[in-house]
Design a protein that fits this description.
The chain is of the alpha/beta class and 251 residues long. The protein has a single domain, classed as Aldolase class I (TIM Barrel), CATH 3.20.20. The chain is built from eleven helices and eight strands. It has an eight-stranded parallel beta barrel with strand order 1-2-3-4-5-6-7-8, surrounded by six helices. The longest helix has 19 residues. The two termini are 15 Å apart. 43% of the residues are buried.
Length: 251
């Protein structure tokens, strides 16, 4: 049985002192998550990674929001895998729709990053999803399948045990609009079918998250679906009270 996962994406929010306070306050939540066989984590900004890693419970997943595929080099403004590993960070969000939209993040670039992470035994959380125009044109599955085939091109199934996929309909992120549980489950089921086509039975073990205006009041509905193994949550993960409510509503 696939283990449930709650991962908060803080985006460009929280100063380091605020991140530290959250990490300290989250310690009993991590204990509760462990008791209920749930993985719990957050993805702070680069500047807050150390503060969270040093002050959170040891079982708290601390993820970066992006990474460069090269180990070093003339890449101004970038951060490498060895730099993350120095701080004990082993999870990274790849291909979030905001990076695809604002920073020209392509699935080809994501493929390079995922390859580098897997080579370093790290966990990529690979995001895929469609725009409102694509959704309304009935192209959701076409767009998602293309992102999977390009982003995961060239990998063997036996290398993918650390991979996590996050389905995030772009039209639902930060808008307050929710994909219904039926839509989310249908797409996540389709994602698993594509993974099965590409990698065989390993697809049954890979976790697929849903993200897009996930809140304490709707998270249970989403995670009750058979192919939704967790949630990638934005705004509702920023306050410890709503983060706790998210966890409580999974349990």
């Amino acid at each position: 049985m696939r283990k449930k996962l709650l991962l908060g994406n803080w985006k460009m929010n929280k100063l380091a002192i605020e991140a530290k306070d959250f990490a300290i306050a989250s310690r009993p939540l991590v204990d509760k998550a462990v008791l209920n066989n749930i993985d719990l984590g957050v993805a702070p900004t680069y500047l807050s990674l150390a503060a969270v890693k040093e002050n959170a419970a040891k079982d708290m997943i601390v993820a970066a929001q992006n990474i460069h595929f090269a180990a070093s080099g003339a890449y101004t403004g970038e951060v490498s895998i060895p730099m993350l590993k120095e701080y004990g960070i082993s999870w990274v969000i790849i291909g979030h729709s905001e990076r695809r939209t604002y920073d020209n993040e392509t699935s080809e670039k994501c493929n390079q990053k995922i390859a580098a992470l897997l080579d370093n035994n790290m966990v990529p959380v690979y995001c895929v999803g469609e725009t409102l125009r694509e959704f309304e044109a009935g192209k959701t599955k076409e767009v998602v399948a293309e992102a999977l085939r390009v982003g995961l091109k060239g990998f063997r199934g036996d290398k993918l045990q650390n991979l996590v996929i996050a389905y995030e309909p772009i039209w639902s992120i930060g808008t307050g609009k929710n994909a219904s549980a039926e839509i989310a489950e249908s797409v996540c089921e389709f994602i698993r079918s594509v993974l099965r086509e590409l990698f065989g039975c390993v697809a049954e073990d890979l976790r697929i998250l849903y993200g897009g205006s996930v809140k304490p009041e709707n998270i249970r509905t989403y995670l009750s679906c058979p192919n939704i193994d967790g949630a990638l949550v934005g705004g509702a993960s920023l306050k410890i009270e709503s983060y706790e409510a998210l966890l409580n509503n999974i349990i």
